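Sample entry (1021 residues):
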Amino acid sequence: MHDDRLLVEGRLERALRQFIRPAQYADRVPLTLSVWHAPGEPVPVAEALDASYEDFETGTAWGKPWSTSWFRLRGQVPDAWRGRHVEVVIDPGFTGEGPGFQAEGLVYDASGVPLKGIHPRNRHIPVAAAARGGEQVHLLLEAAANPTVLHDFEPTPLGDILTAGDGPIYRFASADVAVLDEDVWQLTLDIEVLSELMYELDVARPRRHEILRALERALDALDLHDVSGTAAAARAELTDVLSSPAHASAHRVSATGHAHIDSAWLWPLRETVRKASRTFANVTALAKDYPELVFACSQAQQYAWVKEHQPHIWERIKKAVADGNWSPVGSMWVESDANMPGGEALARQITHGMRFFREELGVQTQEIWLPDSFGYTAAFPQLAKLAGVRWFLTQKLSWNQTNKMPHHTFWWEGIDGTRVFTHFPPVDTYNSQIHGAELAHAERNFTEKGRASHSLVPFGWGDGGGGPTREMLEKARRVRSLEGSPRVEIVKPSAFFTAAEEEYGAQAPVWSGELYLELHRATYTSQAATKRGNRRTEHALREAELWCTAAAVRDPAYSYPYSTLDRLWKTVLLHQFHDILPGSSIAWVHREARDTYERVLAELDELTAAAVRSLGPGGPAALNSSPYARSEVVTADDGTLVHVDVPALGSKGLEETASYTRETGATALLADGEIQLLNEHLRVAIDTDGLLTSVHDIDAHREVLSPGSRGNLLQLHPDHPTHYDAWDLDKHYRNTHTDLTDAESVELVEDGPLRVAVRVVRAFGKSRITQEIRLAAGSRRVDVVTEVDWRESEKVLKAAFPLDVHAERSCAEIQFGHVNRSTHANTGWDAARFEICAHRWLRVAEEAYGVAVLNDSTYGHDVTRAPHEDGLGTTVRLTLLRAPHSPDPETDLGTHRFTYALLPGATTGDAVAEGLALNLPLRVAAAPVLPSLVSVDNPAVTVESVKLADDGSGDVVVRLYESRGGRAAASLTTSFAVSAAEVTDLLERPLEPAHTDDSGIVLALRPFQILTLRMRPARSG
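Predicted structure, serialized as tokens:
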């Protein structure tokens, strides 16, 4: 038989495109429009209802970037449409871009009740399933003129309302009352499902040809000049092929509705409030017609926004949850970045999220749901288990550039050994459309075939929201059991995970350690001010909670600021969203983030100051928020330097130690053109270029820097990623660099006895950098206090320390511990980690000797092996600044202030303690001398937070962890009397009584174990 397959397929595609789809709406009547262009920021619907409107014609331009226009739509259903399916169909000027990346809107009824959102793939508003004729149509459309920002990563001013311009960017195309021809609509879906399946089947399979001939017969039955009148006959020709059931061995897809909504990205936070409202209105409206719908929705913050701004939609959400159509998931406040948030912040992401879902919706979420974050810390499994979370989901690692993850369903093992059942949907998207190509890919791609049969498919328009559509639900019905296709069943994620774990949990493989994304490595560095704001607010929250707790247990009249701290924590958690903290959002988002961090820091400083005042009278004192005792130099209020010894989580009066003289202070020497900085531990030599030529560890009798090298060498690289500007640091950047060795000046600015410092000023390109290299009396730390006026374009700035340490691996701080990574590139997995994330410190070591590099605000690092004339060294570099042009064309331009430090002779414990010290400067204030509020007698046990319990009971909660990677026995004591103590989960719910003896609360921790203790202060009287 002659092969006419391609001819039939071409005939089908043209008929569908040119005749069938356009016939879905049989008749249309334009609505009458009027408009009110809202000045400034979005307004509530009540204000729009009271506004004055002017006549408006379709075809008219509207909407300057980021503005809002309110349109009244009025009309009447023609009497001739009696009994027909009538809808309003709106096109305010949609472009070819997908939903969420252009104009969108929310439609209200005449009284201001929200009905549903509109976007390019969901334009209809129901009027009547069977019209009576004569119905009045009176709707209100809140139309957002959101610009399309991302055009092949080219710089654009559209990413900030301050630079986007005033010209209209949309032209209103149409707003009609229309008849939906259900036969044509259903025929369209029949053809799409069958043709999508057909194209995925091998041409040698009979099933492909069965479908092709059935589609051919349908075309023969269809009159393309009377599609409406012949659609039913065409559908009849497809009944048999649509009824043929799936094979018993077919892959089983658990589908769940989804709408990934970036809490900010190519739009500001305020727009996400509206995106969530539009999407949630769509979903709750869709559930009325499709009772099988299950919508999985994460991010408690977005629920909170909708509850505040759209009470009608909020009530519909609560009903959908109760009816089983809506499944709150994720357990977190936002879908945060999963590399850079600090340990306590990541814990609070979970506790705030889970508490919201439980208190507001009566739901105990059971999974971490992070489909789009840029890699995942190995601390997650333990945090999940401590919160009662059973499962973890992401699909982002399908984006890996080099290595394909070997598993889709597996146990993920964290640094402490805890395991969590994990699934990567093999469909490789969280925005599925239930398309035949997606389903076939999920089946082909699933690595557990033969051992497991289930995978998850999240479906619905996402990133900018939108959610599932009725077309997706119709397709899901058709592929529930269809020969040649995976079986598709719409279920809650919890049902999928339960079934998958029951089927495969006993034999599932284990992945140990971090889930490193081999892409988007620049997100450790981009938007340095945002990262600095995050780091400093995290530590300011830690400090505020500590001293507020100290005030509460010391002064019964003190009122602990529960609500204020809760609000500030939620603000910081919001800004850890995976496109804000990583630096991949538009200029508007990061401009607002910088302002927000400043406000949060100011408010926290006042909270802490008020708490310190409540501690009681006292003279000038140094207050230590670190869980380790400190012996260091501080600056008193009068500007003088004072050496102090301060207990952990306590205070010490400055006057008690102001006259203290160290046996060996800090001194500076000028010799042979070099400046030498010395104290009892270190001798640091700085040459005329302002570079470190020697760092001699006096205690260890060894040089720290590699032979012939110079330390604190600033290196400037061209930075032109292949694709994602703000996101990516591609390996080819290393091919070219400039060493910034020229110095305008190198000057000794402090000469002891408590601190010595050299100021180095450099100019390069259009930028200028000033650094003070400081060495304090008694310190093992060389601080580099830095100010940069950064004016470069598409460059990356690194600070290099070539170390004479033969290190097989680097050790980087993460949340509640550290991870080790190879310094070699033996395997593709090792080579792909050419840029890595570290929190406050990164350490390299050989047997019995290590060196740490500390920082107070950056996260990006690289570590390489560096041969030298005497052997093998290790170069550690901090990634300080970038200057990509998209989506923010002026990323990082401006003034930056930060500090990093070199810590020779550092053990892991030294790195932990000094990293905390650098990030928690001693606070100088009038205060009494206070012993440690909480004290642990084993330095391997690190106190992460001290606070009052969230339930307002007045109980003190202490979270701590083993920080060195070994087992630790310890006793915990407090400076306040305790009447009862118990071990709790992450949400402060009791697990068991704490073990106590005469020494205090007895602790026995395994490596990296996190422990939360709840203590009831004994009340006098």
